[in-house]
Structures are given as structure tokens and as C-alpha cells.
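Q: Predict the assembly, please.
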Amino acid sequence: MLSIKNLHASIEGTPILRGINLEVKAGEVHAIMGPNGSGKSTLASVLAGREEYEVTEGEVSFNGKDLLDYSPEDRAREGVFLAFQYPVEIPGVSSTNFLRTAVNQVREYRGLEPLDAVKFLTLMKEKMKLVEIDQKLLSRSLNEGFSGGEKKRNEIFQMAMLEPKLSILDETDSGLDIDALKIVSNGVNQLKSKDNATIVVTHYQRLLDYIVPDYVHVLYKGRIVKSGTKELALELEEKGYDWIKEAVDSEATV
Amino acid sequence: MSKDNQILEELTSKEYEHGWSVNYEVDEAPIGLSEDTIKWISAKKEEPTWLLDWRLKAYKTWLSMDEPKWANVHYPKIDLQSLKFYSAPKQSKKPKNLNEVDPELLDIYKRLGINLNEQKRLQGIAVDAVLDSVSVATTFKDTLSKLGIIFCSFSEAVKEHPELIKKYLGSVVPITDNYYAALNSAVFSDGSFCFIPKGVRCPMELSTYFRINAANTGQFERTLIVAEDESYCSYLEGCTAPQRDENQLHAAVVEIYAGTHAEVKYSTVQNWFPGDKEGKGGIYNFVTKRGICAGDHSKISWTQVETGSAVTWKYPSCILKGDYSIGEFYSVAVTNNYQQADTGTKMIHIGKNTKSRIVSKGISAGKSQNSYRGQVQVMKRATNARNFSQCDSLLMGDRCGAHTFPYIDINNPSAKVEHEATTSKIGEDQIFYCNQRGIATEDAVALIVNGYAKEVLNQLPMEFAVEAQKLLALTLEGSVG
Ligand SMILES: Nc1ncnc2c1ncn2[C@@H]1O[C@H](COP(=O)(O)OP(=O)(O)OP(=O)(O)O)[C@@H](O)[C@H]1O
Ligand SMILES: [Mg+2]
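A: Predicted assembly structure:
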């Protein structure tokens, strides 16, 4: 589904991603971990098409298409979804209105009829149950004054509404209380199928108890420096990143 | 919700869409301005002598006045002697009802999406259609007259209700008020008159649709709304003009009178031709709008969505004379390309326990300049006056300007005046967030801007809100990305 080869990206001339290689197949869950500032959010942003980042080298293919050729909105319409680490607020625009615009633009791209108000609301009701989100929250201005946890839950609700092929969840677990973490993970699991894939960026092994990854990767200084199975996450939890950092840094000096 | 989407669906890449003109036979005043021009207009309209005298007095006053220069707008001097001050479609005789109106004229309004045919119209809005200098048709007149409501063209009111016109004309905006108001008083051609008798709640929206069609013609309409004690009405004003290279002058006057416990809501969606992308052409919109809350517990509320015109100079104001009277001003002013807007309000607190509320949302894009200018004045005997002002500016790009000029003048220590102001930019973050959900940039801008202006748009009647949202999106098209 997703194939990243030797991806380099920089911002304002500073290289951040320095040769990422990653293969994600349909039906898989990949976890990306790594110390602060290692480039996890940058990778997510580059995949989603944020313009500030300049791709200097490498390629990304998504279902056989050259993803980097597509505008951010077309990537979304092709099925790439990013649950933001820091969702933005849009005053005066309700989640409902926002999502209706989004869903119908995505449908139009896929050659589907737009949903009328009734069908849209029905779909919304159905997906609301999935992440147990309150109707009241959705009639408020998008993310404005939402608590940290509410914002994250709303991101997953949007994911449910848009039914993406590849979902990238950037620290969706941070800010969620224990119950919310279960609910949100449960929602993500229910949305999983053999046709879609998920990349979860997280700092905590705990999330991976709920959303069980097929692979775990460690990102450090803009590269994937170690990959393994979910046991790797447990090891990181126990030992921290120093042993990996040391190995990588000593290699670099040699 | 469906409202917003309807708009987004209709949003396509078009420029000013009302930029066409139509040829029809006209009656026109000779070019230029003099006493003779005024006499010509007055004679054409078969006016009584008192009105001609009033016009001539206004003309004399105007001659002694200078064009105001304090607004933050710049434009070449307007050569009034090269303008025509009156242009009217030729109709063999005055139409008695819609069936007698020249179909070609009705057609102009149809093209604007305004159907003057009563049977086919949406229920609930009575329309007075003003083309160039005269009113061509007023709908739902009979329905209204059963309630004692008078809604007709100004010229007709002069003939049919001279006592009311004599009593109220110039009572809120005197001829000496300002340069443009004096000019309007001298040469005004037509407009709407509306009178709601005591205790009557007008059951439908009253609406005037102004269209400038003729070239080189100034449009000077005059609107007078009188709401007697305990009455209510909601009035809508819309306007368009063809796309022309030259600038055209529009200098209207609106006067509102509200008696005890009366309430008047006045909404405008201004969409005069703004000029092209290079700043060529467009309407100069110099308008004086003022209402007086004459009676206790009366209320006047102005809502405006200003998207058009090359230059806008406009300050809908309230004189809060009655005790416990309320004045409101809700405004969205959008400027793009080379447009300039200097707009705001004046709230003059005279009575006790008077309240005013100002919500101004400026949006600037392109190389435009957008200024809010507002005055809150609390007079000596206005004990317990309250004002709240919120002035927000939204910038798109870095070549436009937003300016705020609040003037506060308080002469009574019990007054409470609050002023809040914010300036923000449409965030790349917000647009990217929308993009990431599959929303195209143009639509993202429309969403964000409509969200920003929501508090004002919510004040508009439904049909107008839809039109206003569309206009906002169209005006800002191509201004981001
Ligand atoms: N505009 C910028 N100019 C220079 N450096 C930047 C800029 N934006 C981001 N960076 C740097 O890029 C690096 C990667 O940031 P990124 O947000 O991808 O890290 P992360 O792995 O997601 O970290 P965290 O775990 O804290 O979320 C950081 O060192 C950050 O400071
Ligand atoms: Mg991050």
C-alpha cells in the first residue's frame, strides 16, 4: 500500500528526514516510536503534503501512485488520513458542517453522489457511537475550547467518517485518560480491515496493548534505526532510547 | 448546515457575476449639476414646490461644503459636471401594477435572480426594485396596505403621503449633515418609503433592490423608514451594478425613525461592482445611513455585509434618544484587489439606560485597505449608558491593510464602554487541516471566513445569509494559495 524509499526532507534548509525506508501493506499496523524531535511528526506531515517541508530526495508510492505528486487535498481524497498531534481550531465552523464539506468533497473525487443532510446525519450518528463522542461537541466550533482529550477523540471520529485507506495517528494517545484511551483504541480497531493500514506514532507502550502493532520502528535523527515486532516496544519501555542512540551515534563517528 | 453546503456547491471560479448591462430607452437629465438640473429632476417627477425648495436649499448648502477628507481612502477627484444625475427607463405611462411593467425591465431583475412576479416569488418578502434612478416595481403592496403599512417608491410617497414625507424627510439626516448627504438631498431621484403604523408587526421582509445600469450616471436614492410606536419591521437592501471601466458614484441616504417600543432591523448586502483585478472601474459608495431611536425602549439594528464597491465610505449610525433604547451594528466588510473600505458606525447615547452593541468583522485580501471607524458618544444626561464593541480584522496575505479607528467620547461617569479588538491571519495551519480532510483551499477559505463572520451573518434573514455567504466566498476567490 505504502512504500517509502530513501525519503529526505528539510524545513527552511534544515534536513529533518534523512533517508526513511518503510513498507506498509494493507491490513498491517505499524508503530513508530522515537525520542522527541526525531522527526516522527515531520514524516507524518510530509506524507500528508504539508508545503513547508521540502522533499529533497526519495520517493513515496501509495497504491501504485506517486504520492508526492498529489496536492494535500488529493492525498486525503486518495485515502491518506492524518490524526494531528495538535489539531487546529476553526472558530465559527461546526464539526458537523466541516465534516459534511469534507465527506462530500472526498465522495465527489471518488465519483460518488454527495450525501444529503439526512444520509449524512445518519452516517454521523453511526460513527459517533464508535468513539462515543457527544453530539454537543460536534455542534460546537471545530476544536475551539475542546479539551486535549476531546480534540484527539474528535480526530478519530473524523477518521471514522472519512474511512481512509491509510491512517497516520500522531500521538493520538497523549492527553487521553485511561477510559478514553480504551474507547479510542477500540474505535481504531473496529475500523481496521484487511484493506486498510494504520501507522501509530506514540511514546507509550501502553497504547500498543490496545492497538497491537505488526511492526515497531524506532525513528532517530530522521532515520528508522531499528525495526522489530511488538516486543521491541516493551524493550524500549524498559530500557529507554539510550542504547539505540549510542549504537547509532558510535556507528556514525566510525 | 445545508446552507453552507449549498454555497460551497455553487462556488465556481467566477468573477463579478452581475457585470452585464442592458439597453433600454431612457429619460436622462442633461449632463452636469446646476440649479437647472435640480429643477429638471423635480419637474420630471412632478414634485410639489416645497420639495423643490428643499432640494434647492440643499444644493446651496452643498455648494458651501467640502468633500470630507478624513477617511482612509484615496481616489481621484470626482468630476460631478461630467455625470448625469437622473436616468430612468422610459415607460409610456406609470405602471399601476406588475402586469403593466415593461417586461424588459422585469427581465433585468430576473437575471439578477429576483423575481418580481408575486405569484412566483418566495413567500414573505415584498420588493421595491429601483433601476438607475427610479423605482420600477413594488410587490405585495395590497397585502401590506391591508395592515396600514405603506411600502412604495419615494416618488409615489411624495404624491400620496406628502404629510408624512414633509414630517420625516431630513429629520434624521439633515441636509447640512455632510457633503454627500447634502448632494443627495439636492438631486435624489427615487428610493423606497416605508411606514409601519402604531402597533403593527410587519409580517414580511421589506426589501429594496438597487441596480445601476446606465453609464456615467450617479445613483442617489433615498430611503425613509418610519416605525410608529410598538411597531416592527425588517428591511433588506441589495445592490448590483454592471462592470464598467469608469468609476460610478453612488451616494444614498437612509433615514430610520423608531417610536416608543418600536423595532427596525435594517440589513444590507452590498455588492456594487468593485472594479477589476487591476483596480480599474468600480462604484464609489458614499452613503449616509442613520436611525433615531426617538421613543423609549425602541431599537434599531443595522446589519451589513459589504463586499462590493471600489471605495466605500459608510457609517450606519444610531441616535439613542429614548430612554432604554438600543442600537446595534453588525458588519462584515470584505476588501480584495484594490478595494478600499472605510466603514463603521456611530452610537450616540442621549437617553438614560441606553445600550449599544458593535460587532465589526473586517476581512482584507489582495492589495486592499480596510478600515473600521467607530464612534461611541455618551452625552451628559445619558446615565447608565452601555456599549460593547468588538472589532476584528482578518488578513489574507501580506499586501493588504487593516486599520481600526475607535473614537470614544464619554460625558457621563456612569457609562460603561468596552472595546475589544483582534487582528488575525488566516492560518496556513487551518488551511492545511482542511486540505488534509479533502477540502480544497478555496472552499477551506470560504469555510474559515464564514466561520469568522458568523456572528454577523447570523443576524441576517435566511435568504440573505445564503447570498451573503456566497458573496464572501466569491469576493475572496483566488486570494490564498
Ligand atoms: N521550522 C523549523 N525550523 C527548524 N527546525 C524545525 C522546524 N520545524 C521543526 N523543526 C525540527 O524538526 C525536528 C523534528 O520535529 P518533529 O516534530 O518531527 O519531531 P517528533 O519526532 O514528532 O517529536 P515529538 O516526539 O516531540 O512530537 C525537531 O528537532 C524540530 O525542532
Ligand atoms: Mg511529534
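Residues A 11-12, 14, 16, 34, 36-42, 85 surround adenosine-5'-triphosphate (ligand 1) (CB under 6 Å). Chain B touches chain A at residues 1-2, 4-5, 8-9, 427-430, 432-441, 443, 447-448, 450-455 (CB under 8 Å).
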